[in-house]
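Hi P.,

Sorry for the delay on this. The queue was packed all week, but I finally got your sequence through. Input first:
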Amino acid sequence: MPNKKVVVLPGDDSAPDTVYAAMEVLRALEVPLDFVEFPPGEQWVRGDTDNAARAAIDTSDSALFGSTSGKTNVVGYLRWGKKTYANVRPCRYLKGFRSPLANPDGIDFVIVRENLEDLYLGLEGPLQALEPLHLSSRILRAELNTSEPGKYAIKVITERNTRQIAHFAFKLARRRKAQGHPGKVTCTSKYNMLRESDGLFRQLVSEVAGEYPDVKYQEFIVDDFARRLVQNSHELDVIVMPNLYGDILSDAAAGTIGGLGLAPSGCYGDDYAYFESVHGTAPDIMGLGIINPTATMLSAAMMLEYLGLSAASKRFADAIRTVYAEGKVLTPDQGGSNKTREFTQAVINSL
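Then the structure:
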């Protein structure tokens, strides 16, 4: 079989340090991958680099991405151009993670976030532009005063995308059940107030649930679920939700196990997937060499699984697990005093 082709996009600020760390481990694993590497955002040239990156993505099998603060100008293409509609954000506690919870052992769930619509379409503008629509609230029976200075944002929930993400979540829960997990999907949105949009999301996910009788199903209003995420995190398995809630609550989920430096993710479409950490670019620690690369490393392990390299993926994840279990070489966010490179070497030594 020919090698798989992976586009490497280091990202901005401190993010490249995490990507380069993950790359060191991938090379130590000697996986059959060919890497097409692009410069970090600080060296990104709008136009030429954009076009080259998109062309490389189109001929690749996957991409490993850092994080961007706006300098790396290709993340929109990875998401909307490649239609990667399912943002999968695992939250799994490993021994040695610095969790604030008294008993984090056993936390192991996955947030499945719809990745293409909701408020993230960016449909915003001046409030006065809505005046011709003569909008009024069905719940509060209140007229919208478009003469007031202000802005609007449009929330979009479509039947097609909701059914698509719901099927993805139930299939994932079914696969996890075969691995010993509960086999349960939880749906959450603000369906009690946003009855048209979030109400539609809830209705469609519930309908899809009927096609998976072997998977348990439950639903909660999103503010109630936020409490359950912290208080009853051990009871969760697969959670499906609209875009904005998924972005916010996955950060909260990371907090239950020890922070954003431990939170990986993958964005999946029908024909493509790319992988990145949940955290941002950490400009405040840029150049210090102390950023935790665990999230990006675990994202790279997810990428190996997606590319059919399951044994290498397991070796990678097991090496990370060993380093944390030993607790000798950890970055400052996890209570250690080691640099990113020292942590990376420890992972390589544990392969």
